[in-house]
C-alpha cells in the first residue's frame, strides 16, 4: 500500500511540473535592450543583463568564472504557486535565463501550487532524479524544514528565492521585505501628512514575507499619528483581497472611517480596487510588488504608491549555476526595491516580468 501511495505522489508531482499555466507578461530577458547600467560580461565576453532591480556590484559577483556554454548539469526549480502572476513570471524568467545563457544545462521546473506538501513531494522527486542544485520559492517556513533536511542529506545545494526557510541553504535571492514594508510605511506617512486611520491587508499568515512586511510597515509609520485599525489576511489572492475589502467597507461605512489602505501585494490590491469601485469609495492605496497591472493602476490614479518587489531572476539562476560548480556567491543577494509613484512610473514599466 505504501508503495502505491508513493507512486501516486511522484506521478502527481511529475504532472504538476509541466501542466500548470498562467498568463504573464513577456519576460524582460527577451524584451530588454542592452543597458550599460545593468549589463555585465561573461568570461567569454557575452553580455548578461541582470535588469534594473539588480545592483551592478551584485551582478558582477554573480558572473560565472567560465564561458557560459561550458556549464553542464541539471537544475531543479520550484515556484511557490502558478496561481499568482509572480509565480508565473518567475517560471518564465527562469526558463528564459537557462535557455539564453546556459544552452548545455538541463532543468526541470515544478509548481508548488501554494502547498508545502506538494513542494515537498516535488523535492523528493527531484532528489530521485539526481538534480545538482535546487532553486526554490518556499511556500511556508516551518513546514518546509524536513524537505530541506532531505536535500542536505542528499548533498544537493539550495538557493532560496523570494522567501526563506529556517534550515540550511547556500544563499537567498530577494529584496528585503522588512525594508520594503518600511518604505511602504514611510510612503503612507507622506501620503497622509503624518496622521490617519489605515487598514492593512496582509498576505498569508505562515509566509515569511507577510510577517517581514508587517514589521517593516510598523517601523515606517513609527513616530507618526497613523493608526492601523484592522489588519486581516487575504493570502495573496485577488478574490480574498476583494472579499476582505468588502467586509471592511461594511464595517467602516463612512468616508472618514478609513483614510488609506496598505496592501502587502498587488494581487490583493487588484481585488481591493474592485471593491472600492463597486462601493463608490475613493481611498488612497499604498501597495507592494510593482507588477505591470499595478503600474498601470498607478498611472490611472488607483494606486498612490507601490514599492517594487522584483522577480529574483536571472540572479537566482546564476547563483545556482555558480554554487553547483563550487564557485563562491554572497550569502544574501539583495535586489533593489524603489518606491514608484505617478512621477516615475514610466521608468519601470516593462521590467517586472509579471
TrEMBL record:
Periplasmic binding protein domain residues: 76-310
Localisation: Cell envelope
Family annotation (SUPFAM superfamilies): Periplasmic binding protein-like I
Coiled coil: none
Keywords, sorted A to Z: Signal
Main location: other
Position of the signal peptide: 1-24
Example of a GO MF term: carbohydrate binding
GO cellular component, one term: cell envelope
CDD domains documented for this protein: PBP1_sensor_kinase-like
Protein family: Belongs to the bacterial solute-binding protein 2 family.
Designated name of the protein: Ribose ABC transport system, periplasmic ribose-binding protein RbsB
Organism: Christensenella hongkongensis
Amino acid at each position: 500500500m505504501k508503495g502505491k501511495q508513493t507512486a501516486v505522489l511522484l506521478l502527481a508531482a511529475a504532472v504538476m511540473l509541466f501542466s500548470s499555466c498562467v498568463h504573464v507578461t513577456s519576460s524582460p530577458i527577451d524584451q530588454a535592450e542592452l543597458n550599460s547600467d545593468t549589463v555585465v560580461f561573461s568570461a567569454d565576453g557575452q553580455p548578461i543583463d541582470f535588469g534594473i532591480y539588480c545592483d551592478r556590484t551584485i551582478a558582477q559577483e554573480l558572473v560565472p568564472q567560465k564561458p557560459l556554454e561550458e556549464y553542464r548539469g541539471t537544475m531543479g526549480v520550484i515556484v511557490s504557486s502558478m496561481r499568482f502572476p509572480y509565480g508565473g513570471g518567475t517560471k518564465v524568467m527562469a526558463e528564459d535565463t537557462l535557455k539564453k545563457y546556459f544552452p548545455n544545462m538541463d532543468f526541470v521546473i515544478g509548481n508548488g501550487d501554494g502547498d508545502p506538501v506538494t513542494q515537498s513531494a516535488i523535492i523528493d522527486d527531484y532528489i530521485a532524479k539526481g538534480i545538482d542544485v535546487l532553486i526554490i520559492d518556499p511556500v511556508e517556513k516551518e513546514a518546509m524544514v524536513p524537505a530541506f533536511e532531505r536535500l542536505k542529506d542528499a548533498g544537493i545545494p539550495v538557493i532560496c528565492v523570494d522567501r526563506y526557510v529556517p534550515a540550511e541553504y547556500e544563499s537567498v535571492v530577494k529584496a528585503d521585505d522588512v525594508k520594503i514594508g518600511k518604505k511602504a510605511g514611510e510612503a503612507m506617512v507622506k501620503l497622509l501628512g503624518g496622521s490617519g486611520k489605515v487598514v492593512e491587508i496582509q498576505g498569508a499568515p505562515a509566509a515569511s514575507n507577510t510577517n517581514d512586511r508587517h514589521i517593516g510597515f510598523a517601523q515606517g509609520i513609527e513616530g507618526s499619528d497613523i493608526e492601523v485599525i484592522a489588519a486581516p489576511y487575504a493570502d495573496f489572492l485577488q478574490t480574498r483581497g476583494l472579499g476582505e475589502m468588502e467586509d471592511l467597507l461594511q464595517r467602516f461605512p463612512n468616508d472618514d472611517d478609513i483614510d488609506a489602505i496598505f496592501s502587502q501585494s498587488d494581487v490583493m490590491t487588484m481585488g481591493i480596487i474592485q471593491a472600492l469601485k463597486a462601493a463608490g469609495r475613493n481611498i488612497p492605496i499604498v501597495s507592494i510588488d510593482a507588477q505591470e497591472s499595478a503600474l498601470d493602476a498607478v498611472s490611472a490614479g488607483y494606486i498612490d504608491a507601490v514599492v517594487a518587489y522584483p522577480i529574483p531572476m536571472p540572479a537566482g539562476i546564476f547563483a545556482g549555476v555558480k554554487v553547483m560548480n563550487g564557485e563562491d556567491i554572497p550569502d544574501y543577494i539583495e535586489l533593489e526595491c524603489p518606491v514608484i509613484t505617478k512621477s516615475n512610473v514610466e521608468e519601470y514599466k516593462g521590467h517586472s516580468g509579471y
